[in-house]
Amino acid sequence: MTTDHVTVAIVGGGQAGLSTSWHLTQSGVDHIVFEAKTLGHEWADTRWDNFTLVTPNWHCRLPGYPYDGPDPDGFMTRDEVVEWLSGYAPSFGPPVKEHTRVNSLTEGVDGGFELAVTGPDGSSTWHADNVVVATGGYHMPIVPTWAAGIDRSIQQLESAHYKKADQLPDGAVLVVGSGQSGAQIAEDLHLAGRTVHLALGDAPRVARSYRGKDVMTWLAEMGLYDTPVQKYPGGVAAREKTNHYVTGRDGGRDIDLRQFALEGMSLYGLLANGAGTRLEFLPTATEALDSADAVYNSICRDIDRYIEREDIEAPPGAHYSPVWALDADPVELDLAEAGVTSIIWAIGYRADYRWVKTAVFDGGGHPAHERGQTKLPGLYFLGLPWLHTWGSGRFHGIARDAGHVVEKIVGSRVEAGTHADAR
Fold this sequence. Notes:
Number of strands: 21
Shape: globular
Protein name: MSMEG_0569 family flavin-dependent oxidoreductase
InterPro entries: Auxin_biosynth/cation_transpt, CHP04046_FMN-dependent, FAD/NAD-bd_sf
Distance between the termini: 34 Å
Oligomer: single chain
GO molecular function: flavin adenine dinucleotide binding; monooxygenase activity
CATH class of the largest domain: Alpha Beta
Keywords: Oxidoreductase
Helix content: 25-40%
Structural class: alpha/beta
């Protein structure tokens, strides 16, 4: 088996990997992008039919490729995102090997890294001076082990496999998790006329618009997406926070689970256990709703203070008041009695870096890094939530993160060349 050499190997052909490739191309650094499937496939494969972005379209800006469509303050649908992304690679011609999986990454005997790769032409080994792992941090959907004991007549699927209400058997649906995916899937099913039961997590929520402007546009102007994680309240612990739920559907609006409850959706606290058709919940639904609303109003107050401090003319705002409340938190559900025929798990993902066989991970299996740079010279990670700022896990911050990593790579090559010349 022959070994090919490249200065930089990028693992992952999504927006993070392609952004890195764009910067390396501009810098004249030879590199290769390994993509296990096809470029940007995640957007087409793991989003439901009615998916929309929750960030305004103007946030969509990759290096050399900003959104230039007719609706910068709107929210692209899944298919529009796929179409927009499909034009990125042709705009600069990255060196990509699709359908090529990196099975293992190890340190090289004489420096650099060895990548064991399987592609259309079989297995091969590549040696790279630098490696950028751009596979994101959402690899393995979380499903509790006890879910295997739920009655087999109940269909179970992870949120990434949900496409539309019609794919599910007739009957009510239990959605587990109220983060961005869970809340929006519950909304999708609710709008489709399905009876929905929703088990709440601890996700906060945010207004879609406030005082005449999209809230995320206000937050961008306030510098929230540019604040390094170390300076954010709570510091690096922010990396474990769940994103606020809101929707871009139908031009964008709030997701108010209390309003959905008024319209017939059943709300529960954390799902704790289950077997057969019986499920047990913690009595945390009221606390979860109150906490989400408190964050919603807190963000509105931050915007109020910013408007006042900067002397900005803006229409008056009104904070949220609950439209519904539980009499008592439910703690159990019989799926058969409630007519529930399917469960959608939307409680998050775990990272899976078992193929990265280097000592750069913390006790939780997460890459230990400083703005994407690990302690192992030449090994970097990109596309992670809160890698550097709140914007790092989305289009808004990927261009900057990729540019920083490439600066480090180019700088290390210049430094190595200077040392070589000195010798």
